[in-house]
Amino acid sequence: MRQLSNHLKFNIGIVGAGEFAEFAAKAFLKINGIHIVGVTDINEASGRKMAVAVNAKFHNNITDLLTDDSIDLVYIATPPYLHFRQSEMAFRAGKHVICEKPAALRTIEAETLAAYAKENNLLYVVNLMQRYNPLYAIVKTIIDEKWLGDFVHGFFENYASDEKLIPEHWFWDEEKSGGIFIEHGVHFFDMFSGWLGEGELISSFEIQRPGVEEKIIDRVQADVLYQDGPVNFYHGFNQPKLLDRQELRLQFDRGDITLYEWIPVKIRLHGLLKVQQVEKLKSLFPGCKIEVHSDDSTHKKVRGKFRDIDFDSLITMESGDIADKMFRYEQLVTSMLEDQLNWIKDPSQVRKIDDTNAVESLRMAEEATKRAAVFAPKSPKGHF
């Protein structure tokens, strides 16, 4: 592998010039020393537009881009069915790789990429940026330190828009996207495994959209059992953008945590806490809103799971603003790249995400897809 001549300068080539690649490129360029020097896309107009925007050279194809010896890292933001082949090509050209999710359409392909990168001392990571969210780390602390007791149940509900997903879009073609679990669900399988440890898929199903000639799966659900309890994952792509929303909840035996948006920016915590825990919340979330449902002037005791539960206050804490979602999104992308670059400079650094996340999130998603029962509801007779 080629050594960087100047550790303060790092050159990136971008494969795929779609809407998210444009967003990610702007985030990358906020890091000192980062330069985007090459862009390629099968849509020449889109590729040239991005190249101009980031002051890079447009390449007619990925093969041409990979011959540029000045490129240190390739960022791949193409449809999922291209990820394996394009990542493999980048590795064989001696480039580091950051790929958008999923790693590939099959787990064995992701394993092959991870093994090749390791053998050749190259960076390989899929942009599962959720673990860079400050809320992710805080929730992890609450779980590990058992502020709310033991975990008992969780859910993630993703009510997403399909306004831009025309019937011919590659998203609906499982040969190109892998299906909803693989194309989208990997983010959340990875997030929950980070919080709760390795999970076991219990069941999954898919629902086919009624009233259309094409086979379009627009709703899926998976049930995963973790060490301490189950989590239900639901994804639906079937409504206007104005109604797009996501909600994630973790239920414990002393309360619950709710996160809002698929890039969580708002948190609500409701539970039985000690005084020192309430003070920690105030320090973690300056300016948060805390409603006390019972005062802490006297020590209290209730029972659950045949045990006494000691607490000082029943509180509800809220913090964050959904309007901050895009700003938080940019922060996560930037933090992800900085973390990976630090590893390239010093491989002894421990990254928040690495090739293991790419492989294991895909493994769960692929299993959920393979085992899913498919339901095809009858077409509605009418609507109002």
TrEMBL record:
Pfam families: GFO_IDH_MocA, GFO_IDH_MocA_C3. Residues 138-203 form the GFO/IDH/MocA-like oxidoreductase domain. One of its GO terms (molecular function) is nucleotide binding. Residues 10-127 form the Gfo/Idh/MocA-like oxidoreductase N-terminal domain. This is Gfo/Idh/MocA family oxidoreductase. It comes from Candidatus Opimibacter skivensis.
